[in-house]
Amino acid sequence: MTGSDLIDPVRIERYLTEKIEGFQGPLEIVKTETGQSNPTFILITPTTRYVLRRKPPGELLKSAHAVEREFRVMKALAASNVPVPRMLHLCEDEEVLGKPFFVMSHVEGRSFNDPRCRDVSDETRARVYDSMNATLAALHKVDVEAVGLSDFGRPGNYFERQLFRWTGQYRASETENILPLEELITWLSDNIPEEDGSASLVHGDWRIDNLLFDLETGKVAAVLDWELSTLGHPLADLGAQLMQWEMPTGDVGRGLEGVDRKALGLPENAAYVETYARRVGLSESPDTQFPVAFAFFRMAAILQGVKRRAIDGNASNPEKAMELGAYVPIFATKALSYLNAGS
Hints:
Layout: H1 3-6, H2 9-19, E1 28-31, E2 40-44, E3 49-54, H3 67-76, E4 87-91, H4 94-97, E5 101-105, H5 122-140, H6 158-173, H7 179-190, E6 200-202, E7 211-214, E8 219-223, E9 230-232, H8 235-245, H9 261-264, H10 269-280, H11 289-312, H12 318-325, H13 328-342
Antiparallel strand pairs: 1-2, 2-3, 3-5, 4-5, 6-9, 7-8
Helix pairs in contact: 5-10, 6-11, 7-11, 7-13, 8-11, 11-12, 11-13
């Protein structure tokens, strides 16, 4: 679908002129290549750029594509140490664009789809990774009551709840039987960690490609894509980070498999986890086996949903969606290899 299929330029310009102070056309709309889950658009006016994220068309899985949660959490974090875009407007009236959407400020910054960050200096690359680590620690230290997010998640064992949720999401979008994924689901079900009382705001999809960086300082300029955020176990975010690094390099895997990290000045897993642990006040590095394995499964379930939408004709980018869907069994196989290597 093109941007005009999902956004009526005349209608949205008139609507936002009424809703956002200072918004004034003429308006140019550019659909981004990212945003497989929630289609994302750059709104260009003569003086300012904005970003619009909306739910995709068609019938959606329950609790998926939660743009309302994205808006709420980023608005709550505006005064925190976690950098986020400024939230400008949330529209839950489906009469406007057919689905709920929100508009936020456009943040200038560099996104890295490749965690090798090959086209920057070693010094900048080191700052990028250190800032990514520091920002994750800052997120997990947010006082959720102070920012109004104490009701942002359910009580109880986070990993148990999440495994139940994502198994349900996977089953709802399943297109074929994938044996490695079934084996992974069984392992996760049999190895859920006991509740240890650890709870914080979690991003839910913590990866370098969901961050924008100021290359002059190497610091995180904005954390994006909060639709999976909730209150939960902080190791879920750390597990997602480490999981990505286990994947193959390239545009789809976006990992560090086989990479000589020392040559690029990138931290090894143990060093990265140790630095994070120190920043959040842990006395020792935590066990990340289950969080990493769960992160593999959740990503496989997410990509299965992307594939299902492509088959159903509701994908933001159908060709890209099918390409991503082909990675579902790969994520499952990588998770099993990870577990076998650690046993």
